[in-house]
């Protein structure tokens, strides 16, 4: 199995190195990652400047390709050009430094890279670890390898898109994997207003939890319980339930 590995924390991030080491147990790993951190860029694609893959060496041998672009750029360039003659069987994005659960999925460069892989019909998995003072990326990488190994065993996963989140608690003691939907509660709505030395206002985004935690079981709720969460996603944003009804509307140009 040929595995394309990328991330949004940059080619030198420790989570990428830890996951690369574990994925080698599943197959050949090809690493193509952003040259610099791209957290929160979502599914941005570079159109106005060229993409130049630069070979990164470790211990005198090629280790990865660094691209001055977004995570989605890395996957798109790899699948459309760099390895078009050597098919990729699996795309893995991570390990991200910080969870990508709930509506964060919509902002995440980590998840966007996996979505890009799924665009190409390749089974794709985004992997994220809860941010803490002492992140154990090695332990999280073992968990990711085990879960990904099980995902690819099933024909139903072929070409699918999956979001895997690992809480800190799961790297410290035995945990469970919960297959759950993404949470839809809105959080992170507040900003702290400050002033610069010139008296101009500026705003710093704050990480805030929902005022009322959702009652349903989601990735957000289960991560709070210390469980690893796995969510199957898709990128079709069509409201199928409204399509037929809207055809009866009196819509005019």
Task: Describe the structure in brief.
This protein is of the alpha/beta class and 253 residues long. It has helices spanning 14-23, 71-82, 109-119, 137-151, 168-172, 219-224, 240-246; strands at residues 2-6, 28-34, 53-58, 61-67, 90-97, 123-129, 161-166, 177-179, 191-195, 201-205, 228-233. It has seven helices and eleven strands.
What does this structure look like?
- The chain has 253 residues and is α/β, with parallel strands linked by helices.
- The protein has one domain (2-184, 214-246): 3-Layer(aba) Sandwich (Stationary-phase Survival Protein Sure Homolog, Chain: A).
- The protein has seven helices and eleven strands.
- The protein has helices spanning 14-23, 71-82, 109-119, 137-151, 168-172, 219-224, 240-246; strands at 2-6, 28-34, 53-58, 61-67, 90-97, 123-129, 161-166, 177-179, 191-195, 201-205, 228-233.
- A nine-stranded mixed β-sheet has the order 3-4-2-1-5-6-7-11-8, with helices on both faces.
- Strand 9 (191-195) and strand 10 form a beta hairpin.
- Helix 1 (14-23) packs across helix 4 (137-151) and helix 2 runs parallel beside helix 3.
- The longest helix is centred in the middle third of the chain and has 15 residues, at 137-151.
- The radius of gyration is 19 Å and the shape is globular.
- The termini are far apart.
- The mean pLDDT is 94.
């Amino acid at each position: 199995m040929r595995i394309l590995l990328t991330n949004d924390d940059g080619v030198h991030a420790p989570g990428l190195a830890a996951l690369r080491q574990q994925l080698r147990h599943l197959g050949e790993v090809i690493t193509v990652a952003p040259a610099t951190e791209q957290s929160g860029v979502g599914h941005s694609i570079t159109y106005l400047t060229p993409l130049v893959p630069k070979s990164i060496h470790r211990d005198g041998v090629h280790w990865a390709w660094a691209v001055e672009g977004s995570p989605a750029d890395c996957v798109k360039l790899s699948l459309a050009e760099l390895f078009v003659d050597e098919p990729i069987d699996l795309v893995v994005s991570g390990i991200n430094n910080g969870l990508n659960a709930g509506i964060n999925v919509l902002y995440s460069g980590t998840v966007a890279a996996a979505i890009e892989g799924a665009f190409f019909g390749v089974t794709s998995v985004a992997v994220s670890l809860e941010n803490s003072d002492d992140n154990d990326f090695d332990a999280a990488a073992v968990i990711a390898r085990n879960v990904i190994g099980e995902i690819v065993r099933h024909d139903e996963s072929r070409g699918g898109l999956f979001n895997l989140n690992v809480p800190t608690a799961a790297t410290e003691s035995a945990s469970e994997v919960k297959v759950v939907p993404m949470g839809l509660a809105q959080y992170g709505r507040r900003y702290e207003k400050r002033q610069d030395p010139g008296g101009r206002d500026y705003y710093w985004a704050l990480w805030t939890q929902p005022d009322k935690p959702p009652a349903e079981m989601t990735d957000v709720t289960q991560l709070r319980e210390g469980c690893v969460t796995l969510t199957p996603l898709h990128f079709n944003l069509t409201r199928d339930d409204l399509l037929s009804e809207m055809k009866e509307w009196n819509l005019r140009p």
